[in-house]
Design goal:
16-stranded antiparallel β-barrel; mainly beta; two-stranded antiparallel sheet; Porin; 493 residues; 7% helix; 4 helices
């Protein structure tokens, strides 16, 4: 046996003199003294993506973990709220909250890994809110609800971003591709994009020389103005058409998406961008017994929107100064013009009352005629446009101000009166909203800010086929003004 082992060793050495050391090392033997062991990669900085990224060896991934903590207090004077169907005050200004507080925290994670097709990026932003007072008041109808002074605290968790991106293709929850105005203002603003993000699939292609184009398919359900429903004793959309029985139901389907396309040019002076969007609104009016009848044939209405936006850098005034502009028009996609930031003043959601008066809920489609019993016989699409400009000025590296002026007009379809029954075909008509504000922000360093802001809002509303009681009362509440003061402290890390 000993002779057999000696012969085996001899033949092995003769047959593979160059591979015996690696073979032994592969089985865990100590390497030779003249070959130092290879050092495994260690956790460290990842300069390829920026100084804040950390390299994780086992995952072969660079990751950045950050976040934000924000505390905001707000004051809004109270306003009497009127009911369009009766002309009476449904809520007194003295019964409303005038203060509100919001504490917001966000966790940001950005991971990037190199692949044969480019950089694979995964992003997750989770935001938690704790609100009370007027920051936690939401309307359950088209008019401001009765408010319990003081309000109850509400804690919620929102997914702001959650997407995967590779070679220009991205999918998940990301920023809306139609709006480009940043949320520099603390309070209400016209044309601000969606802070909560939109579910989408998008592809961006760079042509070179600063030109690029993006095509995105975005979830229609994430936009404002999509749901039109009615049930027993309820009203429809922003309309106040009464339903005498529970057998009528109108439903605007949310199953379709919004197709958005952009063409953009970036340069040293800023950028310009043109945007178009297409969708379809589908509505069905049918008779109910106990459940919705899915066999009824829906009717589709083509909808579209177009916009233009620009950013102009102005370092010749002060480093960091810039001017931004955006304007858009839509037929049937109200959420692209009256976005989350601007519809607050119409729907009473989170901003409380907005400007008082007649508060509307803008919808893509509303009834234009009903029978004496309340059955919808025709519908129409709403249209809207906005225009907004914002200027940012740095008084010094630590002090800056933002000032904006925005105007929005919403046009409702013509509602034809049957002349039968009290309030039939009484609906919200055209509405306009002017928002302007200015803030002052102190940044002792890039991760810490303290700011104050003052906003002014003016709402003008019209009513189609007003109820006799509303006319007799002088049609009050069709105009409103408001001032809003906000104090904010936030830290980004």
């Amino acid at each position: 046996m000993k002779e057999l082992a000696t012969k085996f060793r001899k033949y092995a050495l003769l047959a593979a003199p160059l591979t015996i050391i690696p073979a032994v090392a592969a089985f865990g033997a100590e390497p030779s003294s003249n070959q130092p062991p290879a050092k495994a990669p260690e956790v460290g900085s990842c300069d390829r993506y920026g100084p804040d990224f950390i390299y994780i060896p086992r995952a072969q991934t660079c990751i950045h973990v950050g976040g934000m903590v924000l505390v905001q207090g707000q004051y809004n004077p109270g306003h009497d709220i009127y009911n369009v169907a009766t002309g009476k005050v449904t809520q007194l200004a003295g019964a409303q909250d005038t203060e509100g507080t919001e504490v917001r925290a966000r966790l940001d994670i950005d991971s990037r890994t190199e692949s044969p097709w480019g950089t694979l990026q995964s992003v997750l932003w989770l935001r938690a809110n704790n609100m009370e007072g007027l920051r936690n008041e939401a309307a359950s109808t088209q008019f401001a609800p009765s408010i319990n002074p003081g309000g109850n605290s509400l804690t919620s968790v929102v997914m702001e971003r959650a997407y995967v991106k590779l070679a220009g293709l991205s999918a998940g929850v990301d920023a809306d591709k139609f709006g480009t105005m940043p949320a520099y203002m603390f309070g209400p603003a016209i044309g601000v994009g969606f802070p909560n993000g939109v579910k989408q699939v998008a592809y961006r292609y760079d042509f070179g020389a600063g030109f690029s184009s993006t095509v995105a398919l975005e979830s229609k359900s994430d936009f404002a103005g999509n749901t039109v429903t009615a049930g027993d004793g309820a009203t429809l959309g922003p309309s106040v058409v009464p339903y005498a029985t529970s057998v009528q139901y109108a439903n605007q389907w949310n199953s379709s998406a919004v197709l958005i396309g952009t063409l953009r040019n970036d340069a040293d002076w800023g950028f310009v961008q043109g945007i178009v969007a297409f969708a379809e609104n589908t509505i069905n009016a049918t008779t109910l017994t106990s459940v919705y009848n899915p066999l009824a044939t829906p009717t589709g209405y083509p909808a579209w929107a177009a916009g233009f936006s620009a950013r102009y850098l102005m370092p010749f005034i002060a480093p960091g100064d810039e001017f931004r502009f955006q304007s858009a028009f839509t037929q049937g996609i109200i959420g692209l013009v009256a976005s989350t930031g601007s519809t607050n003043d119409y729907t009473d959601f989170f901003m409380s009352r907005g400007v008082g008066g007649i508060i509307t809920v803008p919808q893509n489609m509303i009834p234009t005629a009903v029978t004496a019993t309340g059955a919808v016989t025709s519908v129409g699409q709403s249209s809207a446009y906005n225009v907004v400009g914002m200027y940012t000025h740095y008084w010094s590296p630590e002090w800056r101000s933002n000032a904006d002026v925005g105007y929005m007009q919403i046009s409702m379809p013509k509602a034809y009166s049957t002349g039968v029954g009290a309030g039939l075909n009484t609906q919200a008509g055209n509405a306009s909203l002017l928002v302007t504000g200015v803030n002052l922000i102190w940044s002792p360093n890039k991760m810490w800010e303290i700011g104050v802001e003052l906003d002014y809002l003016h709402l003008t509303q019209s009513i189609q086929n007003p109820d006799a009681a509303f006319v007799a009362a002088g049609m009050p509440g069709l105009k409103g003004d408001a001032l809003s003061g906000i104090v904010r402290l936030d830290r980004v890390f």
